[in-house]
Amino acid sequence: MRHFEFTVDRPYAKSVNQTWADMRRLQVAAIIVGLVFAAAAVGLILLAEPWTIVLGVLSAIAALASVWVALWVPRKVGSIEDLYAKSPLVPAVVSEIHPRAMTLLSLIDIAKPGTRAPLYALVTRNVPVPAGRKRSVGDKVPSVALLSDRRTHSEADAWEMVSPMPIEWGTRDAAVHSRATSAIDQVEWDFLRSRIAESKQIRTSPDQRVILSERELPENLR
Questions:
Q1: Sign (positive/negative) of CA torsion 131, 202, 212, 206?
Q2: Residue 194, Cβ neighbours under 10 Å: how many?
Q3: What is the pLDDT of residues 81-113, one digit of tens each?
Q4: What is the pTM of this model?
């Protein structure tokens, strides 16, 4: 597994990193839902009817569950620094340009540690176009692969949730971007570019990924 070390510009990352933004949105949504359930619990319990008390207790439990989600999410995801340090470096290229976003196409080994052999997949992710930067189809976007499961005790051999997170969401330093690009074999970049035409098909498939057979892979990955 290939990793890439660099100093994360935390204030900058918090302003542009969409993974961090998604986490914050989930936290805010959980807090809002919790407040709604808490208010409902108080109102129902104050009515002092047997059925309203029961519903009030259930609403209070739902409120506590929402607060737990808001607290659990950052622990589950980890810090921005941890995400970059612990996630493998992978190639990604711009495969589609949309009016307000672009699609990244990435090559990621989705096999879990301890499995007998790697399991490569083409994975897409829609992301905003960087402010002030013009992007073209085929541009290299070195990234790290975020790998996780939907269930805590999943026994699957492959990660259930996989997506690329660009290095450029962690720093503005062009030298870091260049170093990350060079750390990835040119064969992998060429392979991704050869599969750009399949981007829409992959983007609209379940989990936005398509698993590759061994014979489809470049020789250095077999």
A1: positive
A2: 10
A3: 999 999 999 999 999 999 889 999 999 999 998
A4: 0.84
